[in-house]
């Protein structure tokens, strides 16, 4: 049995289309809130035809224009063209905008038989094709332990060794192999299923290839073996050891300390203080309060309820790290607690009988214990060469065992830093090497690839859009195209383009894929989120610019709000539209030569249009805002446009939420992109400074091969407003 794998799925676009005016009337009728709307009112300000200030849909000149395009980084750091050119001596990145050629295929249901028929391509079909391929195998990532470092910055009780690791270490290998299979190729105008009704627009200049791969049931495994030398904590784990040799004699004591008497009858064996040492001199004297003579010896001192076992040895002071170099132990200094009493102990007293100022054989020892009751000493048992051996420690959860090197017993050294291959000797002469050790690490990885039996490739034209509705005509839709350079995920510049579809039944409308914002949790990473939005798969028409009988008017205000129920969530959407008559200055003047900066041009006969949209996802409360400020100049068209966004949560990483400076409305907008007109070229066609393409011409597929001009790309699902494209991923550049 063969498995069919679809390598590239062509999305069939089912488009639901309706006029924006009807949609708003229905939704706003259900909303009790009244919004400001001046479309039916008289206004006293400047007015002008939208065809004169935007683009004339009644004319069809071929025009190309160029705009300086500022991405978020440039938009934030360069307020205008002169500041950018003054620093770099060159122009900012350019967006080219032009009319779309009149070579779209418009087809309806009567064309199905002709356009879905598949034709065998003999020149691209090969039997027993041998294809070289490769598979990349990557090892398991790990980190080397570079050193242990005692943390002196922490509180004394919280000090411990920090593990200082290297960066991630890994390796990969490329395995090359050959695969033999049959290749068959076909072409058709479009793939199935076809449309049921309406108009289907096809970009006849663009071929899409869909590969159907038939695989064997069994996959082929490719194995890579990796060899490393890994630095890690040794099996000794000295920093995790908790000392259990509480009388510090270097051997296991199999019995608990002997009880004397529970003087205070509390069920515990402890050291009792028989007086209050009010002057802290360690002696009972005047001023001290008597507690009790627990042991009835007639003296007021301390009473032991148990025999405090010593070790029969003279114990020097517990080693400590002298932070302030004053030669005395301070409470904030780390020490080696050799007798388990959780306090630093000085050297034991002795009578120097030979007067040599050091403890030596023959001196009288004052052997003391640790002043706590010790039971049977705990131990960790290990098999050493077939013999079970008791080791006087337990393994704790924290690396807080301060290491001390007793190689020089008269001057033990506290180890605040432990490096690879370093070791130490304990008080009893036991040597530990390679506390951080280097070991050979072998990693075997296997990756499975499909064993291909055959490959079938179908070449089809790209679907631009499918529009449903009565009495539709391709001539109702005007298509333009923008192109610019943008950095990909690897930081490399790549060419990006987009189509923009406009029509004008009532207001100036734009055909778009409706886009929606989602909160954290819906996406794993940036590769799952496309341009920062999720999109409906159907083209819909929305109002770009409201007009009053085709006129833009100074002071026009339109506010709308509605609930939009989608398959993902219910959104409350608020839109605000404002028009004002204003001038604008852009670098669109003629240059003396290409080595000089552009000359500023001021357009005084302009309408500034501000569109603001707020989208709130019900339930989550996630809020996303988009604001577009656009200047339209008479007989020129769009001369400047800037997009700003704001949100309460970044779409896939809350830590990367970008917040701007709050404005007068306490809204923190972040610049996304800005366009400023650089130049414009026009092929005269009974119109001056017109930028939109003329009526869409219907052309049959069989005639396309005779026309040399088909070199354009298909429409993409994107988020756009006017001729600008929104891509939130640019905020991370």
Features:
single chain, 733 residues, mainly beta, 2 domains, 12-stranded antiparallel beta sheet, 7-stranded mixed beta sheet, 46 strands, 40% strand, elongated, disordered N terminus
Explained architecture:
The protein is mostly beta strands and 733 residues long. The chain has two domains: 12-100 and 471-732, no CATH class; 132-178 and 221-258 and 307-447, no CATH class. It has six helices and 46 strands. Strands 35-32-31-30-4-3-44-43-42-41-38-37 form a twelve-stranded antiparallel beta sheet. Strands 1, 5, 6, 7, 10, 11 and 29 form a seven-stranded mixed beta sheet that branches. A three-stranded antiparallel beta sheet has the order 9-8-25, with no helix packed on it. Strand 37 (557-565) and strand 38 form a beta hairpin. The longest helix has 10 residues, at 20-29. The chain is elongated and about 115 Å long.
Gist?
This protein is mainly β and 733 residues long.
The fraction of residues in strands falls at: 35-45%
Number of continuous helical runs: 6
Q: Any idea what the radius of gyration is?
A: 41 Å
**What is the CA–CA distance across the termini?**
48 Å
Tell me the domain tally.
2
Q: Can you list the strand order of the major beta sheet?
A: 35-32-31-30-4-3-44-43-42-41-38-37
Q: Tell me about the largest β-sheet.
A: 12 strands, antiparallel
- Decide which structural class fits the backbone: mainly beta
Layout: helices, strands, pairs:
Layout lengths: L2 E4 L13 H10 L17 E3 H4 L8 E9 L1 H6 L3 H8 L5 E6 L4 E4 L4 H5 L2 E2 L5 E13 L3 E9 L10 E9 L2 E16 L11 E17 L4 E14 L7 E3 L27 E3 L1 E2 L12 E2 L11 E3 L45 E2 L12 E2 L14 E5 L2 E5 L1 E3 L8 E2 L7 E2 L2 E2 L5 E2 L5 E2 L3 E14 L2 E16 L10 E10 L5 E11 L4 E5 L2 E2 L17 E2 L4 E6 L5 E3 L3 E9 L4 E12 L2 E3 L14 E3 L2 E12 L5 E11 L3 E11 L22 E14 L17 H4 L14 E3 L2 E3 L7
Parallel strand pairs: 10-29
Antiparallel strand pairs: 1-11, 2-36, 3-4, 3-44, 4-30, 5-11, 6-10, 7-10, 8-9, 8-25, 11-29, 12-28, 13-22, 14-17, 15-16, 18-19, 20-21, 23-24, 26-27, 30-31, 31-32, 32-35, 33-34, 37-38, 38-41, 39-40, 41-42, 42-43, 43-44, 45-46
């Amino acid at each position: 049995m063969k498995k069919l794998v679809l390598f590239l799925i062509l999305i069939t676009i089912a488009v639901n289309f309706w006029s924006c005016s009807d949609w708003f009337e229905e939704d706003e009728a259900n909303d009790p809130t009244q919004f400001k709307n001046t479309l039916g009112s008289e206004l006293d300000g400047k007015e002008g035809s939208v065809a004169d200030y935007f683009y004339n849909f009644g004319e069809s000149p071929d025009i190309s224009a160029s705009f300086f395009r500022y991405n978020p980084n440039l938009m934030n750091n360069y307020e205008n063209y002169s500041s950018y050119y003054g620093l770099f001596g060159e122009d900012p990145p350019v967006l080219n905008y032009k009319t779309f050629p009149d070579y779209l295929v418009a087809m309806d249901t009567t064309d199905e038989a002709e356009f879905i028929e598949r034709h065998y391509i003999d020149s691209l079909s090969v039997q027993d094709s041998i294809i070289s391929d490769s598979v990349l195998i990557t090892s398991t990532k790990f980190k080397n332990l570079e050193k242990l470092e005692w943390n002196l910055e922490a509180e004394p009780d919280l000090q411990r060794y920090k593990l200082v690791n290297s960066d991630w270490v890994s390796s990969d290998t490329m395995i090359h192999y050959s695969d033999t299979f049959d290749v068959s190729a076909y072409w058709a105008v479009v793939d199935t299923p076809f449309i049921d009704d309406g108009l289907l627009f096809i970009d006849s200049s663009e071929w899409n290839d869909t590969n159907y791969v038939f695989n064997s049931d069994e996959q082929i495994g490719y194995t890579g073996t990796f060899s490393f030398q890994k630095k890690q904590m040794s099996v000794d784990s000295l920093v995790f050891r908790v000392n259990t040799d509480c009388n510090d004699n270097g051997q296991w004591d199999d019995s608990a300390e002997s009880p004397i008497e529970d003087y205070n009858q509390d069920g515990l064996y402890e050291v009792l203080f028989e007086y209050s040492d009010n002057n802290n001199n360690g002696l009972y004297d005047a001023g001290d309060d008597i507690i009790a003579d627990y042991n009835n010896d007639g003296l007021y001192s301390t009473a032991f309820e148990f025999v405090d076992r010593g070790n029969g040895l003279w114990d020097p002071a517990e080693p400590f790290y002298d932070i302030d170099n004053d030669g005395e132990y301070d409470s904030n200094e780390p020490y080696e607690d050799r007798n388990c009493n959780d306090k630093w102990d000085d050297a034991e007293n002795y009578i120097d009988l030979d007067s040599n100022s050091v403890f030596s054989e023959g001196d009288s020892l004052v052997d003391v214990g640790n002043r706590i009751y010790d039971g049977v000493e705990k131990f960790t048992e290990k098999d050493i060469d077939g013999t079970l051996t008791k080791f006087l420690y337990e393994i704790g959860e924290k690396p807080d065992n301060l290491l001390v090197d007793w190689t020089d017993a008269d001057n033990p050294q506290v180890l605040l830093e432990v490096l690879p291959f370093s070791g130490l000797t304990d008080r009893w002469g036991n040597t530990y090497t390679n506390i951080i050790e280097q070991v050979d690490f072998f990693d075997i990885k296997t990756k499975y690839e499909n064993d291909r039996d055959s490959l079938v490739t179908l070449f089809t034209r790209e679907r631009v859009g499918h529009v449903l509705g009565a009495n539709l005509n391709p001539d109702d839709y005007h298509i333009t195209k923008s192109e610019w350079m943008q950095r990909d995920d690897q930081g490399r510049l790549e060419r990006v383009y987009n189509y923009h579809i406009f029509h004008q039944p009532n207001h100036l409308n734009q055909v778009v894929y409706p886009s929606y914002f989602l909160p954290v949790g819906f996406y794993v990473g940036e590769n799952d989120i496309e341009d920062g939005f999720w999109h409906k798969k159907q083209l819909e028409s929305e109002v770009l610019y409201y007009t009053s009988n085709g006129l833009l008017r100074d002071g026009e205000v339109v506010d709308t709000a509605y609930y939009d129920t989608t398959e993902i969530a219910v959104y409350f959407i608020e839109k605000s539209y404002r028009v004002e008559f204003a001038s604008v200055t852009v670098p669109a003047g003629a240059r003396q030569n290409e080595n000089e900066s552009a000359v500023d041009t001021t357009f005084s006969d302009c309408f500034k249009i501000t569109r603001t949209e707020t989208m709130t996802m019900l339930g989550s409360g996630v809020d996303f805002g988009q604001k577009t400020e656009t200047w339209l100049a008479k007989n020129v068209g769009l001369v400047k446009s800037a997009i700003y966004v704001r949100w309460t949560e970044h779409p896939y990483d809350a830590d990367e939420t970008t917040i701007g400076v709050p404005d007068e409305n306490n809204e923190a907008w972040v610049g996304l992109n800005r366009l400023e007109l650089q130049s414009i070229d026009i092929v005269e066609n009974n119109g001056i400074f017109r930028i939109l393409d003329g009526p869409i011409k219907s052309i049959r597929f069989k005639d396309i091969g005779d026309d040399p001009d088909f070199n354009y790309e298909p429409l993409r699902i994107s988020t756009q407003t006017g001729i600008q494209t929104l891509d939130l991923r640019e905020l991370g550049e």
